[in-house]
C-alpha cells in the first residue's frame, strides 16, 4: 500500500491535510473523493510518498549515499541540510517497486523480536538491530518505515497496519496490538509460534504431496506414450490384415492413438484453457470461497485442514483474548487468521451478528455458524461455564496441533497407498495390453497378401 498526502480547502476557507493508503493514485483519489464529499472540502494537492536516492558530503569530507521515503525532493534536501550535510544530489528512484518479503524472513523478524523483547530490550533498539540482520530489502524498508512512523508519534497499530500487504494482515494486526499492550513480549512470542507452526504445516503438506503428484504425472505420461506410440508401431501393422481380428484392448488403443493424432492440437489448447480458467476462478473471491467451502469435506485431507483452521482460530483467539478487551474484534481477527474464507464468512455473518444483535452467548453463536467441530464446541462450552474461555481456547489449539501433526503422517501414508494402487492399475492395464499384442499371430499368407 502506498501512502498519499492530500491538501484541501473547506467551504469556510480552512486548510485540511491528511494521509490515505491505497495501492495506486487512482484508488487514493477515490478515497479522498469520498472524504471530500463527507467532510465538504475541495482537493487542491495530492502527493505520493516515494523513494528518493541521495548523495551527501559529510563535514569530514566523506561522501555518503542512501535512500529515503518522502513526498518531495525538497523535503529530503531540507532534512539533510539540517543534519549538517552538504547535499550533492537528490533524485527520485526510477524503479521504486518493492516485492513482498519472503515468509521465512517475516517469521525470522518476529521470532528475533520476540527473543530480544523477552530480554527486556527497548523496542526502538530491537528495530534498529533487526534492520541490519534482515536479508530482504523490502522487509528492511518496512522496518525502517515503522520505526520512523513510531518516532513521529503515529499510533503503533496504524504504523504496522500500513504494511499489512507486506507483513500479512494478521501479523501486522498482532504486532500493532502488542505495541499497545502490557505483554508485548508474550504476544510477539505467541505470534512467532503461530507463524512458525503455520509455515511448518504448509511445508509438510507440500512436501508430502509433491512426490505423489510427480509420480502420478509421470505414470500418466508413460501410459499415454505407450498407448499413443508403442502400440500403433507394433500392433498397427496387423490392422490391414483382414483375416486377423485384433483384441479389444489393442483395437481401443489404436483408435485412441488415431484420435490423439487428429485432435492433439485441440486437446492441448482445451487443456490449457481449462486449467487457466480454473486457476483464475480459484484466485477470484468467489472461487476461493467455494474452494475453501468444499476443501474441508474432501476425504482424508479435508478433515485435517478443517482442524488446522480451528486450531489457528483458537490460538489467535487465546492470544488476543488476554491482550484485547473487545471480544467481537477478537473473534473477527481470529476468523480472518484461520486461513479459510468460508469459515471466516460464516463466523462474521452468523456468529458475530448473533452476539451483537441478539446478545447470544459465545458457544451458541459459534454453533450456529456450522463450521466448528463438536469437540471444539464442547471445549469452548466448558471454558464458558468455568469462566476461563482463554485457557479452553489454548487447550483446543494445543490438542488440534498434536492431532493434526500425527494425522498428517497417516494422511501421507494413505495418499501413498492410493498412488501405489493407481500405478498398479496402470501397470496391470499395460501388461494386459502388451500380452494381447504379443499373442497376435499372422500367417505367412497374411504377409504375402495383406488386405486380400
Q: Could you describe the 3D structure shown?
A:
The protein is mainly alpha-helical and about 450 residues long. Helix content is about 70%, strand content about 10%. The protein is built from 18 helices and 6 strands. The protein has a 3-stranded antiparallel β-sheet, covered by helices on one side. A 3-stranded antiparallel β-sheet has the order 5-4-6, with helices on one face. Strand 4 (about 50-55) and strand 5 (about 65-70) form a beta hairpin. Helix 10 crosses helix 11 (about 285-295). The chain is extended and about 95 Å long. The chain starts with a strand and ends with a helix. The mean pLDDT is about 80.
Short description:
By secondary structure, this protein is mostly helical.
Pattern of helices and strands: EEHEEEHEHHHHHHHHHHHHHHHH
How many helix segments? 18
Global shape: extended
Beta fraction of the residues? 5-15%
Structural class: mainly alpha
| Main sheet strand line-up | 2-1-3
Spans of at least 5 consecutive residues whose pLDDT stays below 50 are none
- Extended strand count: 6
User: Largest sheet, described in full?
Assistant: 3 strands, antiparallel
Helix content: 55-70%
Mean pLDDT across the residues is 82
Provide the gyration radius in Å: 32 Å
Distance between the termini: 78 Å
